[in-house]
Amino acid sequence: MSNFVNMDTFSNYQKYIDNEQELRENIRLVVREIEHLAKDAQIKLQIIHSDLSQISGACGSARKLIEACAEKYVKLATLVPPGQYYRYSDHWTYITQRLIFLIALVIYLEAGFLVTRETVAEMLGLKTKPGDGFHLDVEDYLLGILQLASELSRFATNSVTMGDYERPLNISHFIGDLNTGFRLLNLKNDGLRKRFDALKYDVKKIEEVVYDVSIRGLSNKDNKDGDQSVAATE
Fold first, then answer.
1. Considering all CA atoms of the chain, what is the largest pairwise distance in Å, rounded to the nearest integer?
2. Cα separations (Å) of 107 from 34, 113, 136?
3. Least crowded by CB within 10 Å, which of 44, 142, 198, 205?
4. 139 is in an annotated binding site
5. Is the pLDDT of residue 10 over 90?
6. Is 134 in contact with 85 (CB distance < 8 Å)?
7. Beta strand spans in 61-161 (E)
8. What ranges in 46-137 are assigned the alpha helix state H?
9. Contact predicate 140/93, CB 8 Å
């Protein structure tokens, strides 16, 4: 009696499944290496919340770890078949967003401005256009930047504790501009929209810190303004 099902077909299916599982496992191994490096970079940067004098050194150490991550992304790009970036992107999306946040934090601490997507891509060894292969997705960039707001709101509070009363004002201006920029976007991605909605709480928290500094007369700017007012009445 002849078989109605060709068993060789199922053997081919099994080969496909085995190859797919092997590829995903290789991708996971590289992603884990990136995660370990990113975790070390984040640990290095936590010193900013307790010792302002260590900011420069922490940024330098984080940069070296980020450079090591870029090497891993090169390896990751060789594993992903051409044209199948989004098929496997769930493996590295979260850690990429985390690295974007860390890079944005380093750049802010060093220079005080928002890092561009192009600079982040360059630092991680990624492309910016999907058609060019392994690239930095726009939504990943935006989600990573939104993580920066939460970290800076915490940094503003801790800066006051460490006696730096001007930094919260600078952070407030920066986050205010960031908030304005995001409001220009028509966000349709649910995850991105929800994360953006949380930005208003970061803005409010920083404003409260600035207000507290102001009413206590701790800011040099407030003191100068007060001195000028007194001089004008004399």
1. 113
2. 20, 7, 18
3. 198
4. no
5. no
6. yes
7. none
8. 55-79, 85-88, 93-111, 117-124
9. yes
Count of alpha carbons within 13 angstroms of residue 127, beta-carbon side: 9
The SS3 assignment for 50 reads: coil
| Cβ neighbours of 94 (radius 10 Å) | 13
Of 220, 116, 119, nearest in space to 170 by CA: 220
pLDDT value at position 18? 87
Q: Give the tokens for residue 128.
A: 């910016």
Mean pLDDT over 83-87 rounds to 92
Contact yes or no for 38/102 (Cβ under 8 A): yes
Q: CA 122, CA 19: separation in Å to the nearest integer?
A: 31
Residue 163, C-beta contacts closer than 8 angstroms, at least 6 positions apart: none
CB neighbourhood size of 19 (10 A) = 10
Residues 143-178 pLDDT 10s: 999 999 999 999 999 999 999 999 999 999 999 999
CB 149, CB 175: distance < 8 Å: yes
- Cα separations in angstroms, 57 against 52, 147, 174: 10, 22, 23
How far is the C-alpha of 169 from the C-alpha of 210, rounded, in Å? 6
Between 101 and 6, the more confident residue is 101
